[in-house]
Amino acid sequence: MSQPRPATRMPPQTDKPRRFVFVLLENFTLLSFASAVECLRITNRMLEREVYEWQVVGESGETCVSSSGAVFALDGGLEELGRDDTIMICGGIGVQAATTKKLLAWLRREARKGLVVGGLCTAAHTLAKAGLLDGKRATIHWENQDSFGEEFEEVILTKSVFVVDGNRLTTAGGTSSLDMMLKLIADDHGEETANAVADQLIYSSIRTDQDTQRLSVPTRIGVRHPKLSQVIQQMERNIEEPISPSILARDVGMSTRQLERLFRRYLNRSPKRYYMELRLQKARNLLMQTDMSVINVALACGFASPSHFSKCYRAHYQTTPYRERGSQSTRQPA
Q1: Where are the transmembrane segments (predicted)?
Q2: Is pTM beyond 0.90 here?
Q3: What one-character DSSP code corresponds to residue 28?
Q4: Helix axes of 226-237 and 256-267: crossing angle, nearest 10 degrees
Q5: pLDDT tens digits, one per residue of 74-131
Q6: DSSP readout, 54-81?
Q7: Widest distance between CA atoms in the chain
Q8: Cα separation of 126 and 146, whole Å?
Q9: Domain limits, the chain
Q10: b or e along 168-201 (b: 16 or more beta carbons within 10 Å of the residue's beta carbon)?
Q11: CATH of domain 217-330
């Protein structure tokens, strides 16, 4: 099959290939890693020469297991890299446990050379733990946003699908690796090359760093009612300091009783109940993904007292926050 050739001006063929070093963490997300590598492979094919090369390494230097159970043979361990290399940390489930002291020491050492360092899926946590995102914009998978924001206040956290801030790259996981790699390819070899790669991937809607990672509120709840969406957005933005139903109703131009009927009709629960479930969901994320005390989790989710928090948590999840925290060592986080 003949291949379409992008009409972009190509660098001289004597140029040294740009090398990516993918660092696989235990339980890494396969989709994020594969999406990034495939973009590089297809670019080489489109340009009919090797403009990119890559290496897959990990702390063990031998094998690494993805979150899907697939086992990958590694090209090597955490060795010294060249100054022109680009590091891509590939995270996934349990990124906190996978971010070891050895990995952090290696990452800090290599970053001091001025290398471009990226974090795919949850690996923004690893970059932040190493201090590489201080004062920089970054993103991480939406399930990890609550815990990340609490732990790394010095990082400017966004909800974008990917972020490029200087020599630091982060993605939100899933197919967002495609979008970021296409951006890098466009920077290196022109937009037409990036578009040709996307076309080969049957990827018809390339997102930018201005796109957010989550579905819109109407799509998520399956209801297209503008005032209901506005109220839910307000609730999601104000978890630590909950807003009363009367103020929420007033802000969208309706009475408290009308708001109550709206929630009952479309969501089969009261505004107060829905708001409580949002706060408890955030609390559970913080309990499972951080070392925050139960008291601090309660305060971060708008509960004035630990006893009230524990009572509400037990009623919703049939267990107490303390037992939830104690059981997390035997389970993998979401």
Answers
A1: none
A2: no
A3: B
A4: 100
A5: 999 999 999 999 999 999 988 999 999 999 999 999 999 999 999 999 999 999 999 9
A6: EEEE-SSSSEEEBTTS-EEE-SB-S---
A7: 72
A8: 16
A9: 18-200, 217-330
A10: bbbbbbbebbbbbbbbbbbeebbebbbbbbbebb
A11: 1.10.10.60
CA distances to 305, 317, 324, 325 from 328, in Å: 23, 14, 6, 6
Tell me how far the alpha carbon of residue 35 is from its chain's centroid: 15
Angle, CA 24 vertex, CA 18 and CA 25 arms, to 5°: 145
Rounded CA separation 84/16 (Å): 10
CB 131 within 8 A of CB 99: no
Residue type, 8: T
pLDDT tens digit sequence for 161-198: 999 999 999 999 888 999 999 999 999 999 999 999 99
Q: Which CATH architecture has domain 18-200?
A: 3-Layer(aba) Sandwich (3.40)
Report residue 326 as tokens.
């104690």
Residue 163, φ and ψ in degrees, nearest 5? -135, 135
pLDDT band, very low/low/confident/very high, at 282 (cuts 50, 70, 90):
confident
Which ranges of the chain does DSSP label H, i.e. alpha helix?
30-47, 95-98, 101-111, 124-129, 145-151, 176-189, 191-200, 217-221, 226-237, 245-251, 256-267, 271-289, 294-300, 306-317, 321-327
334: which 2 tokens? 């979401």
